[in-house]
Write a structure and sequence with these properties.
Strands 3-2-1-4-7-6-8-5 form an eight-stranded mixed β-sheet, with helices on both faces. It has about 400 residues and is an alpha/beta fold. It is globular. The protein starts with a helix and ends in a 13-residue tail after the last helix. The protein folds into two domains: about 100 residues, no CATH class; about 200 residues, Spore Coat Polysaccharide Biosynthesis Protein SpsA, Chain A (Alpha-Beta Complex), CATH 3.90.550.10.
Length: about 400
Protein backbone atom coordinates (compact mmCIF):
# COMPACT_ATOMS: atom_id res chain seq x y z
CA UNK A 1 0.00 0.00 0.00
CA UNK A 2 1.39 3.37 -1.05
CA UNK A 3 1.69 6.29 1.37
CA UNK A 4 -1.05 8.16 -0.49
CA UNK A 5 -3.41 5.19 -0.23
CA UNK A 6 -2.64 4.82 3.47
CA UNK A 7 -3.24 8.52 4.06
CA UNK A 8 -6.50 8.36 2.13
CA UNK A 9 -7.69 5.41 4.20
CA UNK A 10 -6.73 7.23 7.42
CA UNK A 11 -8.68 10.30 6.35
CA UNK A 12 -11.66 8.13 5.47
CA UNK A 13 -11.52 6.40 8.86
CA UNK A 14 -11.39 9.78 10.59
CA UNK A 15 -14.45 10.95 8.66
CA UNK A 16 -16.32 7.75 9.55
CA UNK A 17 -15.43 8.18 13.23
CA UNK A 18 -16.48 11.83 13.14
CA UNK A 19 -19.78 10.98 11.46
CA UNK A 20 -20.43 8.32 14.09
CA UNK A 21 -19.58 10.75 16.88
CA UNK A 22 -21.78 13.45 15.33
CA UNK A 23 -24.87 11.29 14.95
CA UNK A 24 -24.48 9.59 18.33
CA UNK A 25 -24.14 13.01 19.99
CA UNK A 26 -27.16 14.46 18.19
CA UNK A 27 -29.16 11.32 18.95
CA UNK A 28 -28.15 11.48 22.62
CA UNK A 29 -29.27 15.11 22.95
CA UNK A 30 -32.57 14.31 21.23
CA UNK A 31 -33.11 11.30 23.49
CA UNK A 32 -32.45 13.29 26.67
CA UNK A 33 -34.96 16.02 25.82
CA UNK A 34 -37.42 14.39 23.39
CA UNK A 35 -36.94 10.62 23.29
CA UNK A 36 -37.40 10.06 27.02
CA UNK A 37 -40.74 11.91 27.27
CA UNK A 38 -41.94 10.23 24.06
CA UNK A 39 -41.18 6.82 25.52
CA UNK A 40 -42.99 7.81 28.71
CA UNK A 41 -46.02 8.76 26.62
CA UNK A 42 -45.94 5.38 24.88
CA UNK A 43 -45.61 3.51 28.19
CA UNK A 44 -48.46 5.61 29.56
CA UNK A 45 -50.80 4.14 26.95
CA UNK A 46 -50.63 0.76 28.69
CA UNK A 47 -49.54 1.74 32.19
CA UNK A 48 -51.40 4.26 34.32
CA UNK A 49 -50.91 4.77 38.06
CA UNK A 50 -53.49 7.37 39.09
CA UNK A 51 -53.14 8.96 42.52
CA UNK A 52 -56.04 7.92 44.73
CA UNK A 53 -56.74 11.22 46.46
CA UNK A 54 -59.24 11.46 49.27
CA UNK A 55 -60.20 13.32 52.45
CA UNK A 56 -57.11 13.31 54.60
CA UNK A 57 -56.35 15.26 57.79
CA UNK A 58 -53.04 13.98 59.21
CA UNK A 59 -50.95 16.18 61.44
CA UNK A 60 -48.68 18.40 59.36
CA UNK A 61 -45.36 20.00 60.25
CA UNK A 62 -44.68 22.88 57.87
CA UNK A 63 -40.95 23.62 57.81
CA UNK A 64 -39.67 26.90 56.36
CA UNK A 65 -35.90 27.04 55.97
CA UNK A 66 -34.33 30.48 56.36
CA UNK A 67 -30.97 32.15 56.45
CA UNK A 68 -30.84 35.95 56.85
CA UNK A 69 -34.34 36.46 55.47
CA UNK A 70 -35.45 39.48 57.49
CA UNK A 71 -36.75 41.18 54.33
CA UNK A 72 -39.01 38.29 53.33
CA UNK A 73 -39.83 36.15 56.35
CA UNK A 74 -42.78 38.27 57.52
CA UNK A 75 -44.49 38.00 54.13
CA UNK A 76 -43.84 34.25 54.09
CA UNK A 77 -45.29 33.72 57.56
CA UNK A 78 -48.38 35.82 56.82
CA UNK A 79 -48.89 33.78 53.66
CA UNK A 80 -48.44 30.52 55.60
CA UNK A 81 -50.91 31.49 58.33
CA UNK A 82 -53.58 32.00 55.65
CA UNK A 83 -53.63 28.27 54.94
CA UNK A 84 -57.08 26.72 55.40
CA UNK A 85 -55.69 23.57 57.06
CA UNK A 86 -57.01 22.96 60.63
CA UNK A 87 -54.76 24.87 63.01
CA UNK A 88 -54.77 22.11 65.63
CA UNK A 89 -53.13 19.79 63.08
CA UNK A 90 -50.82 22.37 61.51
CA UNK A 91 -47.43 23.05 63.14
CA UNK A 92 -45.44 25.91 61.57
CA UNK A 93 -41.69 25.85 62.18
CA UNK A 94 -38.97 28.14 60.86
CA UNK A 95 -35.59 26.41 60.68
CA UNK A 96 -33.01 29.18 60.95
CA UNK A 97 -29.52 28.27 59.78
CA UNK A 98 -27.83 30.47 62.38
CA UNK A 99 -29.20 33.69 60.86
CA UNK A 100 -27.21 36.79 61.80
CA UNK A 101 -29.76 39.47 60.89
CA UNK A 102 -33.21 40.12 62.32
CA UNK A 103 -34.81 36.94 60.95
CA UNK A 104 -35.05 35.11 64.25
CA UNK A 105 -36.57 38.07 66.12
CA UNK A 106 -39.21 38.47 63.42
CA UNK A 107 -40.07 34.79 63.69
CA UNK A 108 -40.37 35.03 67.47
CA UNK A 109 -42.83 37.89 67.03
CA UNK A 110 -45.21 35.35 65.46
CA UNK A 111 -45.07 32.96 68.44
CA UNK A 112 -48.55 34.01 69.58
CA UNK A 113 -49.81 32.70 66.22
CA UNK A 114 -48.25 29.31 66.86
CA UNK A 115 -45.07 29.77 64.84
CA UNK A 116 -42.00 28.09 66.34
CA UNK A 117 -38.34 28.90 65.78
CA UNK A 118 -35.74 26.15 65.49
CA UNK A 119 -32.26 27.63 65.29
CA UNK A 120 -28.88 26.09 64.52
CA UNK A 121 -26.20 27.54 66.78
CA UNK A 122 -23.59 27.21 64.04
CA UNK A 123 -24.21 27.56 60.31
CA UNK A 124 -24.57 24.08 58.89
CA UNK A 125 -26.48 24.50 55.63
CA UNK A 126 -30.07 24.13 54.49
CA UNK A 127 -30.34 20.39 55.05
CA UNK A 128 -28.74 20.60 58.49
CA UNK A 129 -31.37 23.16 59.53
CA UNK A 130 -34.11 20.97 58.06
CA UNK A 131 -32.74 17.93 59.91
CA UNK A 132 -33.01 19.69 63.26
CA UNK A 133 -36.56 20.80 62.46
CA UNK A 134 -37.53 17.26 61.43
CA UNK A 135 -36.22 15.92 64.74
CA UNK A 136 -38.12 18.56 66.75
CA UNK A 137 -41.49 18.09 65.06
CA UNK A 138 -44.09 15.33 65.25
CA UNK A 139 -46.26 15.77 62.16
CA UNK A 140 -47.17 12.65 60.22
CA UNK A 141 -46.59 14.63 57.03
CA UNK A 142 -43.64 16.99 56.66
CA UNK A 143 -44.00 19.91 54.24
CA UNK A 144 -40.93 21.89 53.21
CA UNK A 145 -40.95 25.35 51.69
CA UNK A 146 -38.52 28.16 50.89
CA UNK A 147 -39.02 31.69 52.16
CA UNK A 148 -39.37 33.13 48.66
CA UNK A 149 -42.21 30.77 47.67
CA UNK A 150 -45.78 31.98 48.05
CA UNK A 151 -48.67 29.51 48.30
CA UNK A 152 -52.40 29.62 47.70
CA UNK A 153 -54.57 29.22 50.86
CA UNK A 154 -55.57 25.70 49.80
CA UNK A 155 -52.04 24.49 49.10
CA UNK A 156 -51.54 22.35 52.23
CA UNK A 157 -55.00 20.82 52.04
CA UNK A 158 -54.40 19.96 48.39
CA UNK A 159 -50.95 18.46 48.80
CA UNK A 160 -51.96 16.35 51.81
CA UNK A 161 -54.82 14.68 49.91
CA UNK A 162 -52.24 12.76 47.90
CA UNK A 163 -51.21 10.78 50.98
CA UNK A 164 -54.58 9.02 51.03
CA UNK A 165 -52.87 6.83 48.44
CA UNK A 166 -50.68 4.36 50.38
CA UNK A 167 -48.21 4.10 47.46
CA UNK A 168 -47.28 7.80 47.70
CA UNK A 169 -44.18 8.66 49.71
CA UNK A 170 -43.66 12.28 48.62
CA UNK A 171 -45.43 14.97 46.61
CA UNK A 172 -44.03 17.79 44.50
CA UNK A 173 -45.67 21.09 43.74
CA UNK A 174 -45.78 22.79 40.36
CA UNK A 175 -43.41 25.74 39.85
CA UNK A 176 -44.65 29.05 38.53
CA UNK A 177 -41.84 31.44 37.56
CA UNK A 178 -42.67 35.10 37.11
CA UNK A 179 -40.33 37.75 35.70
CA UNK A 180 -40.05 41.10 37.42
CA UNK A 181 -42.11 42.59 34.59
CA UNK A 182 -44.70 39.83 34.82
CA UNK A 183 -43.80 38.07 31.56
CA UNK A 184 -42.88 34.44 31.01
CA UNK A 185 -39.19 33.96 30.26
CA UNK A 186 -37.23 31.26 28.48
CA UNK A 187 -37.01 29.56 31.83
CA UNK A 188 -40.78 29.74 32.07
CA UNK A 189 -40.99 27.63 28.91
CA UNK A 190 -38.31 25.32 30.28
CA UNK A 191 -40.17 24.90 33.56
CA UNK A 192 -43.39 24.14 31.69
CA UNK A 193 -41.49 21.38 29.89
CA UNK A 194 -40.28 20.04 33.25
CA UNK A 195 -43.81 20.10 34.67
CA UNK A 196 -45.09 18.25 31.59
CA UNK A 197 -42.37 15.64 32.11
CA UNK A 198 -43.28 15.28 35.77
CA UNK A 199 -46.91 14.68 34.88
CA UNK A 200 -45.84 11.89 32.52
CA UNK A 201 -43.61 10.35 35.19
CA UNK A 202 -46.42 10.50 37.74
CA UNK A 203 -48.79 8.76 35.33
CA UNK A 204 -46.35 5.98 34.44
CA UNK A 205 -44.50 5.30 37.70
CA UNK A 206 -42.83 7.93 39.88
CA UNK A 207 -41.09 11.28 39.74
CA UNK A 208 -37.31 11.47 39.61
CA UNK A 209 -37.08 14.81 41.44
CA UNK A 210 -39.12 17.23 43.54
CA UNK A 211 -39.49 21.00 43.57
CA UNK A 212 -37.26 22.04 46.44
CA UNK A 213 -39.28 25.21 47.00
CA UNK A 214 -42.43 23.30 48.07
CA UNK A 215 -42.76 19.55 48.62
CA UNK A 216 -44.23 17.13 51.14
CA UNK A 217 -43.23 13.69 52.42
CA UNK A 218 -44.27 11.04 54.89
CA UNK A 219 -42.23 11.13 58.07
CA UNK A 220 -41.18 7.53 57.43
CA UNK A 221 -39.16 8.51 54.32
CA UNK A 222 -37.46 11.35 56.21
CA UNK A 223 -35.84 9.08 58.77
CA UNK A 224 -32.06 9.23 58.74
CA UNK A 225 -32.15 12.71 57.21
CA UNK A 226 -28.82 13.48 55.50
CA UNK A 227 -27.56 16.94 56.50
CA UNK A 228 -25.14 17.10 53.56
CA UNK A 229 -27.37 15.94 50.67
CA UNK A 230 -29.88 17.92 48.59
CA UNK A 231 -33.11 17.26 50.49
CA UNK A 232 -35.67 17.33 47.67
CA UNK A 233 -33.80 14.86 45.42
CA UNK A 234 -32.72 12.66 48.32
CA UNK A 235 -36.26 12.51 49.75
CA UNK A 236 -37.53 11.22 46.42
CA UNK A 237 -34.81 8.56 46.31
CA UNK A 238 -35.59 7.55 49.89
CA UNK A 239 -39.23 7.10 48.91
CA UNK A 240 -38.21 4.73 46.12
CA UNK A 241 -35.95 2.82 48.51
CA UNK A 242 -39.02 2.39 50.74
CA UNK A 243 -41.04 1.01 47.81
CA UNK A 244 -43.05 4.22 47.60
CA UNK A 245 -43.29 6.75 44.80
CA UNK A 246 -43.16 10.48 44.27
CA UNK A 247 -45.96 12.27 42.44
CA UNK A 248 -46.60 15.74 41.06
CA UNK A 249 -49.82 17.52 41.96
CA UNK A 250 -50.88 20.17 39.42
CA UNK A 251 -53.25 21.66 42.01
CA UNK A 252 -50.36 22.54 44.32
CA UNK A 253 -48.51 25.57 42.99
CA UNK A 254 -45.50 27.43 44.33
CA UNK A 255 -45.14 31.00 43.02
CA UNK A 256 -41.78 32.74 42.94
CA UNK A 257 -39.93 35.26 40.86
CA UNK A 258 -37.12 34.66 38.44
CA UNK A 259 -33.77 36.13 39.40
CA UNK A 260 -33.21 39.38 37.54
CA UNK A 261 -29.44 39.01 37.87
CA UNK A 262 -28.28 36.40 35.33
CA UNK A 263 -24.99 35.83 37.16
CA UNK A 264 -26.85 34.94 40.35
CA UNK A 265 -29.24 32.71 38.42
CA UNK A 266 -26.30 30.93 36.80
CA UNK A 267 -24.60 30.43 40.16
CA UNK A 268 -27.84 29.07 41.62
CA UNK A 269 -28.08 26.50 38.84
CA UNK A 270 -24.47 25.42 39.30
CA UNK A 271 -25.01 24.96 43.05
CA UNK A 272 -28.18 22.97 42.46
CA UNK A 273 -26.53 20.65 39.94
CA UNK A 274 -23.40 20.07 42.03
CA UNK A 275 -25.64 19.10 44.93
CA UNK A 276 -27.73 16.87 42.67
CA UNK A 277 -24.66 15.10 41.31
CA UNK A 278 -23.50 14.48 44.89
CA UNK A 279 -26.79 12.76 45.72
CA UNK A 280 -26.72 10.76 42.48
CA UNK A 281 -23.17 9.51 43.01
CA UNK A 282 -24.12 8.21 46.46
CA UNK A 283 -27.20 6.48 45.06
CA UNK A 284 -25.77 4.52 42.12
CA UNK A 285 -27.39 1.32 43.39
CA UNK A 286 -30.73 2.77 42.26
CA UNK A 287 -29.57 2.30 38.65
CA UNK A 288 -29.94 -1.48 39.12
CA UNK A 289 -32.86 -2.41 36.80
CA UNK A 290 -33.26 -5.86 38.40
CA UNK A 291 -34.13 -4.28 41.74
CA UNK A 292 -35.62 -0.91 40.85
CA UNK A 293 -37.05 -1.83 37.44
CA UNK A 294 -38.62 1.10 35.59
CA UNK A 295 -37.24 3.69 38.02
CA UNK A 296 -33.65 2.71 37.19
CA UNK A 297 -34.31 3.66 33.55
CA UNK A 298 -36.05 6.88 34.63
CA UNK A 299 -33.15 7.90 36.86
CA UNK A 300 -30.65 7.19 34.07
CA UNK A 301 -32.69 9.05 31.46
CA UNK A 302 -33.94 12.08 33.40
CA UNK A 303 -30.87 12.80 35.48
CA UNK A 304 -27.69 11.25 34.10
CA UNK A 305 -28.51 11.69 30.40
CA UNK A 306 -29.54 15.30 30.99
CA UNK A 307 -26.33 15.99 32.90
CA UNK A 308 -24.25 14.51 30.05
CA UNK A 309 -25.84 16.65 27.31
CA UNK A 310 -23.11 19.39 27.47
CA UNK A 311 -20.48 16.81 26.53
CA UNK A 312 -22.64 15.62 23.62
CA UNK A 313 -23.03 19.25 22.47
CA UNK A 314 -19.27 19.74 22.48
CA UNK A 315 -18.70 16.45 20.64
CA UNK A 316 -21.33 17.31 17.99
CA UNK A 317 -19.77 20.71 17.34
CA UNK A 318 -16.19 19.41 17.14
CA UNK A 319 -17.18 16.54 14.85
CA UNK A 320 -19.17 18.94 12.67
CA UNK A 321 -16.14 21.22 12.25
CA UNK A 322 -14.11 18.27 10.95
CA UNK A 323 -16.92 17.08 8.68
CA UNK A 324 -17.77 20.49 7.20
CA UNK A 325 -15.37 20.09 4.31
CA UNK A 326 -16.86 16.75 3.29
CA UNK A 327 -20.34 17.79 2.13
CA UNK A 328 -22.85 20.62 1.82
CA UNK A 329 -25.01 18.84 4.38
CA UNK A 330 -22.41 19.09 7.14
CA UNK A 331 -21.64 22.67 6.12
CA UNK A 332 -25.32 23.42 6.66
CA UNK A 333 -25.46 21.70 10.07
CA UNK A 334 -22.36 23.62 11.13
CA UNK A 335 -23.99 26.92 10.12
CA UNK A 336 -27.09 25.97 12.12
CA UNK A 337 -25.00 25.20 15.21
CA UNK A 338 -22.92 28.36 14.92
CA UNK A 339 -25.99 30.57 14.46
CA UNK A 340 -27.75 28.87 17.39
CA UNK A 341 -24.83 29.46 19.75
CA UNK A 342 -24.22 32.99 18.41
CA UNK A 343 -27.82 34.02 19.05
CA UNK A 344 -27.76 32.44 22.50
CA UNK A 345 -24.50 34.05 23.55
CA UNK A 346 -25.47 37.45 22.11
CA UNK A 347 -28.67 37.41 24.11
CA UNK A 348 -26.89 36.30 27.28
CA UNK A 349 -24.22 38.97 26.81
CA UNK A 350 -26.39 41.97 25.96
CA UNK A 351 -30.10 41.13 26.20
CA UNK A 352 -30.55 43.71 23.43
CA UNK A 353 -32.08 41.29 20.98
CA UNK A 354 -35.87 41.37 20.60
CA UNK A 355 -37.67 39.78 23.56
CA UNK A 356 -38.97 36.85 21.54
CA UNK A 357 -39.35 33.39 23.05
CA UNK A 358 -37.60 31.72 20.12
CA UNK A 359 -34.52 33.84 20.92
CA UNK A 360 -34.72 33.55 24.69
CA UNK A 361 -35.14 29.78 24.79
CA UNK A 362 -31.79 29.06 23.03
CA UNK A 363 -30.04 31.39 25.46
CA UNK A 364 -31.56 29.59 28.42
CA UNK A 365 -30.73 26.17 26.93
CA UNK A 366 -27.09 27.20 26.49
CA UNK A 367 -26.91 28.70 29.99
CA UNK A 368 -28.34 25.54 31.53
CA UNK A 369 -25.81 23.33 29.80
CA UNK A 370 -22.92 25.68 30.60
CA UNK A 371 -23.96 25.48 34.25
CA UNK A 372 -24.07 21.67 34.05
CA UNK A 373 -20.57 21.59 32.56
CA UNK A 374 -19.35 23.99 35.25
CA UNK A 375 -20.97 21.81 37.91
CA UNK A 376 -19.19 18.68 36.69
CA UNK A 377 -15.85 20.51 36.74
CA UNK A 378 -16.46 21.69 40.29
CA UNK A 379 -17.64 18.26 41.39
CA UNK A 380 -14.52 16.53 40.07
CA UNK A 381 -12.40 19.23 41.72
CA UNK A 382 -13.89 18.05 44.99
CA UNK A 383 -16.44 20.78 45.66
CA UNK A 384 -19.38 19.61 47.78
CA UNK A 385 -21.77 22.50 48.41
CA UNK A 386 -23.40 22.26 51.82
CA UNK A 387 -23.55 25.86 53.05
CA UNK A 388 -26.04 28.15 51.33
CA UNK A 389 -27.08 31.71 50.83
CA UNK A 390 -30.64 31.97 49.44
CA UNK A 391 -30.98 33.81 46.13
CA UNK A 392 -32.49 37.26 46.50
CA UNK A 393 -35.34 37.51 44.02
Amino acid sequence: MSCSEGLGRLVMNIYVCMQTAFWISIGFICYAYVGYPLLLMLIGVVRNRPVEKGPCRPTVSFIITAYNEENRIREKLLNTLQQDYPRKSFDVVVASDCSTDGTDDLVRSFSSSGVRLVRLNTKGGKEAAQKQAVELTAGEILVFSDTATMLEPTAITSIVKNFSDPTVGCVSSVDRFIDTDGTVSGEGAYVRYEMFLRNLETRVNTLVGLSGSFFAARRSVCQGWAPDLQSDFNTLLNSVRNNLRGVADPECVGFYKNLSDQKKEYDRKVRTIVRGISVFMRSLSLLNPFRYHLFAWQLFSHKLCRWLVPFAMIAALMANVVLASSSLFFQGTLVVQVVFYAVAMAYLATKRLPSIGMLRIPSFFVMVNLSILDAWIRYFRGERIVSWSPSKR
